[in-house]
Design brief:
By secondary structure, this protein is mainly beta. The chain has one domain: monomeric porin ompg (Porin, Beta Barrel). 9% of the residues lie in helices and 49% in strands. It contains four helices and 14 strands. A 14-stranded antiparallel β-barrel has the order 1-2-3-4-5-6-7-8-9-10-11-12-13-14. The longest helix has 17 residues.
């Protein structure tokens, strides 16, 4: 009986894991998706004549036991310097590491990205990108409370599964706007060896991201959207509006359908360090247990030879 209860609890927990974003998404969500755009689309890496290093942490549904937590580190750079939009082609490379916990489950991801960009007009460029990597999935049975503390099934649930990971994307940009489309989880791995269920399978996720900068005398407005979809899930949309002051400080608001309203903040320090913060107010039924999420990202950017007064694509602000 205890064994049956444990198995059913484990399967229920896993179901929550693969749909923890309320809409059935198996991919981590970020409110500051512009700041972590390389996570969604590998074609973005190397899009500036810069070396970028970013790290962030998202603590979702604070106070909710077993709620998702994510930490990431990313590095990207251009191998061929695109000092202006007049250069014809360049190559970008990047690396991404992420650690996630969801209750008793843990997922660690590492991938390497490659992007190739070329001009299609004098001021418009097109990039194609792909990434390859691995995902390590694990169950921490020690965090599960059982009626029988020495239940022998515990030994059978301390498992680690290593699976390949791949994705691809394309990205179009100029100095005022951008559009990108990408796929994640292109290798639809089955997790049967982890939780004894042949129904647990990764789904391909589709992402469409776009944004534009509208110039004002003192304040620029930058709307951004991110649409997300996977098979058998409800489509999700993140829509935000940022107000940019002198290219130094940004304030904004964001909305995620059926999930949250958010406030956004970013500050640019000496055009080298960038600090991002987002605060989500939960609007779904989860607000009965937790009504807030914190997200913090810090970035370092080194752009030798780049004119800081030149306008850049709003994705890279």
């Amino acid at each position: 009986m205890v064994r049956l209860i444990f198995k059913n609890t484990l399967r229920l927990s896993f179901a929550l894991l693969i749909c923890h974003c309320v809409n059935g998404q198996q991919v981590t969500q970020f409110t500051h998706f512009v700041a972590n755009a390389a996570f969604y689309n590998p074609a973005i890496v190397g899009g500036q004549d810069c070396m970028l290093i970013k790290s962030g942490h998202r603590n979702q549904w604070v106070g909710f036991e077993g709620a998702p937590k994510s930490t990431f580190l990313s590095v990207s750079s251009s191998l061929k310097s695109p000092n202006s939009f007049n250069n014809s082609t360049h190559v970008g490379v990047g690396g991404y590491f992420q650690n996630e916990t969801h209750g008793s489950f843990k997922k660690t991801t590492f991938n390497a990205s490659y992007a190739y960009s070329f001009l299609i007009t004098q001021k418009l460029s097109l990039a194609f990108g792909a990434y390859l990597g691995v995902q390590q999935l694990a169950i921490d049975a020690g965090t599960i409370n059982l009626f029988q503390s020495n239940d022998p099934i515990i030994n059978g649930t301390q498992k680690i599964l290593l699976i390949p990971d791949a994705g691809a994307g394309l990205f179009i940009k100029n100095k005022d706007w951008y559009v990108g489309y990408s796929l994640k989880n292109m290798i639809m791995n089955n997790w049967e060896n982890l939780i004894e269920s042949n129904q647990s399978k990764l789904q391909i996720h589709h992402f469409l991201m776009a944004g534009k900068r509208f110039y004002g005398e003192k304040i620029n407005l930058i709307p951004n959207v991110l649409f997300k979809y996977s098979n058998n899930s409800i489509p999700s949309a993140d829509i935000n509006l940022n107000m940019e002051f002198a290219k130094v400080v940004n304030f904004g608001i964001s909305w995620r359908n059926m999930d949250a309203l958010s406030t956004l903040f970013r500050i640019n320090i000496l055009n080298r360090f960038h600090i991002y913060y987002a605060y989500d107010i939960t609007t779904s039924k989860i607000q009965l247990s937790s009504n807030n999420t914190h997200e913090f990202i810090i970035g370092f950017k080194s752009c030798p030879g780049q004119n800081k007064n030149n306008p850049i694509c709003p994705l890279f602000y």
